[in-house]
Design a protein that fits this description.
mainly alpha
Length: about 80
């Protein structure tokens, strides 16, 4: 197993997570505290998106070709965002 795709995937996910702190309020993707939620302040809801992007960027580096990933990527988008 090569370590490069893993490190690139981790880097991409970290970049998206840290940028989510600034993009989430602009996009309205915040979870606000309420009676049933125990967090103190507003929490960005973009962690899953960050992991999704990081995983797919790592796969892209590992396989080296976007053509090999079009079918699994489109299938995962259909599962992630059903109509």
């Amino acid at each position: 197993m090569q370590i490069t795709p893993v490190l690139f995937s981790l880097f991409c996910a970290a970049v998206v997570v840290f940028s989510a702190r600034y993009l989430a309020p602009i996009l309205g993707l915040l979870d606000h505290p309420s009676v049933r939620k125990q967090h103190v302040g507003s929490v960005p809801l973009m962690g899953g998106i960050a992991l999704f992007i990081g995983a797919w960027m790592g796969l892209l580096i590992a396989f080296g070709s976007i053509e090999l990933l079009i079918a699994p990527f489109s299938a995962s988008l259909m599962v992630s965002f059903p109509s």
